[in-house]
Structure formats: C-alpha cells, structure tokens
Design a protein that fits this description.
Length: about 350
C-alpha cells in the first residue's frame, strides 16, 4: 500500500552529515497531539532517503529531543508529501514535511485528496522547492529540449508514486494541457532511480522538485553534464495563473557546475503540516523549540537558512496552527487574517 515506513532517531554531526540511530520504541508513549505528559511521542513524516526531507526531519527530531521537555521525536522515511498528509489524516504521524501544493490540496479536499479533505494546519514554513526538469546535455543535443513542452513523446520520470514530486509534475502537465498518460512515456522513479536511468539512457528526462544544489543532482553531474529544461515564459505564465501557489523562479547560472546559464522555472514552498487536533500548547512548544534552534536545521540545508524565519509564515498555503500564531505574535510578527484558523 506504499505505507511501509522506517523510523529513526537522528544525531547531527558537523556540517551536512547526519548519524542515524534506531529509535527505541519499547516503552509506551502518548500521542504527540495532546497537551503534554510523560514521554509524548512525536512522529515526523519525511520522504525518501535520497531527498532533503529525510535529513531535515532527522534534524527536527534531534532538536526536539534535545530541547523540548517530555517529548520523544522520531523521523520516518516515507514516499513523500502526498503519503505524509495521508499519514496525518490517519493519525499515524504528528508532523509532516510537505510541499505547499500538496498541503493546499489536502486541506481543501482536491486533487489526490478529492472528497477526503485532511484536517491540517501549518506549523512552520521552511524553504522553496524548485522545479527541475532534468536531462543530460547529450540528450539535449540529440533531442532539442528547449522548453518544457519539448518533452512530449519522450521518456520522462515524473517522480516516485505518491510523492509530492509526482503531484507537482501532474499539476504542471495539467496547467499546460498535457497528459502524463498520453504525451510522454511515463516512468515513476524516485530521485536516485531517475539519475540512474538517465545515466543508462533508459529515459530522456525527469523531474526533481527540490532545493537548489540538491545532492543527487550534484552526484549526477559528476559523471554527466546536466541540461535543465527551461520553463519558457508562456509556460510559466500558464502554470502560475492556474495554480497560484507556484511562483516564477530562476536557477542562477553555475548553481550546478555543468549549467552555466540562468534557467527559468517554477518554485513552491515547503511547510511542516500538523493535524488540527494538536493542542495549542503542544504546537507552541514545538514551534518555539524548532524556530529557536533553527541553526540545527540549517546545518542540513544551508541554502534554506535565509528562508527559515517567522515572517515567512505568510507564505503558508493553509491556516496556521494556533501554537505557532501565539509564538510568532510574541516575537512581534503580524499574522494575516486569512491564515488564522
């Protein structure tokens, strides 16, 4: 069913590395949704091991375990954003890292969540994810992949099944009046598999919806020069008009060593979603702990450090949790009325 997950505790090492420790689960603990008590357990849904959500969730667990009294947090590998919101809905996770498009659709019962809205709110706004349509320079030379629509008829990986990457790609296709069922030879690979398939010439391109400078893309370009397929001006306008939680974005030249020119594309924000039945006190405790120890999170993704500030709560796609509203207002941050529950 795509819901098998692995649970870990995490210890941050210096720089970008993390050390994984198996989380002890032998003692019973209450759900992290209540007000508190002894050893309340917080389950954090992250993503695949190849993505940034996984170490970010591990860093969150480490920060919580070190700084939040009476809480035991653990991070779990999952299929990504879509599955994470379903885990929130099913009561299996207490926090979920997810893309804003997924959270918006879950909250409103749209798209993948049609008819089954998820009672969720935002606890944190993290950093923007950038849509990378990735090919190799050798495939571009042969095929002429100058705009996103040029992938029509090509072999294209849309992302792992149930991932936010797949949902984002499906929304881009929809906005451009394209069909992943008909207009491409679709594959549904996770990042590492997509990179392997590109190297082995099994696909022509694939999508990564990740922070800039993602490790798997740097590893790929260590052996093969990349070509990032631009989202041309008319394409970007069509997507942002239909789905306003997307923004136009430019990947600056030399962000990747083999891509020297600026590349036009799209971006959307990542958030930490929590269930609406998480108490205000628990939400306040978690928000305060994570924002006041953001340096521990920024070690995992240094490029996101400038974004991990309270003022960016205004970027949330859904209402904020009362706990983070309380904390933000204590710090003098104004919260728009549209983001109050």
């Amino acid at each position: 069913m795509g819901r098998q997950r692995r649970r870990y505790g995490f210890g941050l090492a210096l720089g970008l590395s993390t050390t994984l420790l198996t989380a002890a689960c032998s003692q019973p603990a209450e759900s992290g949704r209540g007000d508190g008590g002894d050893a309340a357990r917080i389950s954090i849904a992250t993503g695949t091991t190849a993505g940034i959500y996984y170490p970010m969730g591990g860093a969150m667990a480490e920060v919580i375990n070190r700084n939040a009294e009476g809480v035991e947090a653990s991070a779990e590998t999952t299929g990504g954003s879509v599955q994470n919101l379903r885990l929130i809905a099913d009561g299996q996770s207490d926090m979920a890292i997810a893309q804003s498009d997924v959270v918006h659709q879950a909250h409103h019962g749209q798209g993948e969540f049609s008819g089954s809205p998820v009672k969720t709110q935002t606890l944190m706004v993290l950093y923007p994810n950038v849509y990378h349509a990735v090919s190799l320079q050798s495939r571009h030379d042969a095929l002429g992949l100058d705009c996103f629509r040029d992938i029509k008829g090509k072999r294209f990986s849309v992302g792992a099944p149930g991932s936010g990457n797949e949902l984002a790609t499906n929304l881009v296709f929809d906005a451009l009046d394209m069909s992943p069922d008909k207009d491409i030879e679709r594959q549904r690979y996770a990042y590492a598999e997509t990179a392997r398939a590109l190297r082995e010439e099994q696909i022509d391109a694939g999508s990564w919806v990740v922070g800039e400078g993602h490790g798997s893309l740097r590893e790929l370009e260590a052996t093969d020069a990349l070509h990032l397929i631009p989202m041309c001006e008319d394409e970007a306008a069509e997507v942002t008009e239909k789905y306003p939680f997307y923004n136009k974005h430019t990947i600056k030249g030399s962000t990747y060593s083999t891509v020297k020119e600026d590349v036009s594309t799209l971006a959307l924000w990542n958030v930490v979603a929590v269930p609406t039945d998480m108490s205000e006190e628990r939400g306040y405790q978690l928000a305060r702990t994570l924002y006041e120890n953001a340096a521990g999170l920024n070690k995992v993704y240094e490029a996101g450090a400038e974004y991990l500030v309270l003022k960016n709560l205004a970027k949330s796609p859904v209402p904020l949790h009362p706990g983070v509203i309380r904390y933000a207002e204590e710090k003098g941050v104004q919260i728009p009325d549209r983001l109050r529950p």
